[in-house]
Amino acid sequence: MITKETIRNLAILSRLEFTEDELAKYTQSMDDIFNYANLLKNIETSHVAPSSHAIPIQNVFREDFVIPYENIDKILSNAPEAEAHSFVVPQILAD
Amino acid sequence: MTSWEAVIGLEIHAQLTTNTKTFCNCSAEFGATANTHICPVCTGMPGVLPVLNKNVVEYAIKLGLATNCSISGHNEFARKNYFYPDLPKGYQISQFDKPICLKGHMDVVVEGKESKIGITRIHMEEDAGKLVHQGSDNIKGATHSFVDLNRSSVPLLEIVSEPDIRNAKEAVAYMEKVKQILQYLEICDGNMEEGSMRCDANVSIRKKGETSLGTKAEVKNLNSFKSVEKAINLEIERQIDILEEGGTIIQETRHYNEATNSTKSLRSKEEAHDYRYFPDPDLVPIVISSEWVEEVRKSLPELPEARRNRYMADYALNEYDALYITSEKSLADFFENTLKFINKPKDIVNWLMSDVAAYIKSKQLSVNATKLTPELLAGMISLLSAGSISGKIAKDVILEIFETGKNAQQIVSEKGLAQVSDEGAIKQAIEQVLQENHESVESIKNGKVQAIGFLVGQVMKKTGGKANPGLANKLLKELLGIS
Asked: A89 — contact with chain B (CB < 8 Å)?
């Protein structure tokens, strides 16, 4: 059961602001999503080892050599604001 | 005051010296122009797939083995979720309940007393980007900030100690030991000024004899050994003051300010940590076989303690000298390389510990960042031990080598510094000195033999330090008629 308090806390952690109406709406939506996901609990898994990954695959590695990325300007142009080859973010701590 | 005991644990972040970042092929090099080592993966673009750098795993295994940890066979990465402008994905990829190294320890010595500091865990994670605040030196007062993502996803190992440390000096000794091992393993340069090693301290106090833990405060932003020592002492005093006035310690994070030597609470509503860790579905489990661990074990270099013991056994160095020479890998390597040119271990150590140490300290350099090479040092020592230059001149010659990188022989012939062992020339200088110093001569004749040292000094001065001092002493005695 997802409560309004859970969503309120999640909003703080996610730096989001909800009105009371939105809070009610998202509490309901999230509860629906969780209930739907809970259907998975009906599957018999007592014979399956706990795992964190969907397919049995392990040890995928990359060798340690540099390949420079060629399209950095495109990345910076995605930023709402860029200056001095940097992303610009608004004031972090208001006093 | 003395009835309190501090309980300290350290979390050390070591930035690895891999070529590339943790999950992409961008360079991990420090100091490049902002945002020149970035790509869609380390800037958190949607739809990208992180792929783990194999060396990060190898380096972690190395450190685990060197600190007596057990290496976990099954490893997973987790997402640590939080919002901050230096974290483009909104989560940091880290390890949570399945870290790569567990339950190790290190022995540290403080003022002759050895203590064992437990290591709870070592885990792999990625670094965040760097914020450059604008309009103020500090985040407070800044109007906006620049984000440089060159550091985003550079690999880190977080080394978490048990709360086994009892005072600030012990914390510093432990940290120095961690730095030394990282440097010997060549997996981190240990450069605290550049942020390659960073430290947070968990500090609490309790009455001596108690076994339960007090409420701890976490002190952050300790960027030098001096900061670690000062901030811990400050925090211990702060907590004692609170408890002795009948107050209670609040569990919180405190930020250390090096300039004002004070700490400040960072507590706020936003600080309520709730990282909602979960396994990262983009990354597959890492399975480390015992064969892999053994392979890495075989590749481990000789560690400081083993080197120290070998120097004492093979070169008859005393413990103090051996400890000094092995304190930094670069110094120990320099010592061994010099030995290849001249087999005089004690002489080499003496120079490294005196004139060389003084020079690199004054210039704040590492021994291999000067113009002095092992071959040049060996050349100078060989001129000295052959009697071609005096000890005093040798001190000038080594400074000249530091400045010019020329070899000792060349400096000596260019500057005419060769030691004078010609009796005639020395006698001439002595006769002048005797004429100029009647009083000293009289007092020597009246039995004050120690005044001869002064006269030898005058002879050396007269010859510009080039006279062979032993010969000057002998001739002086002959001329004065004393034996």
From this structure: yes
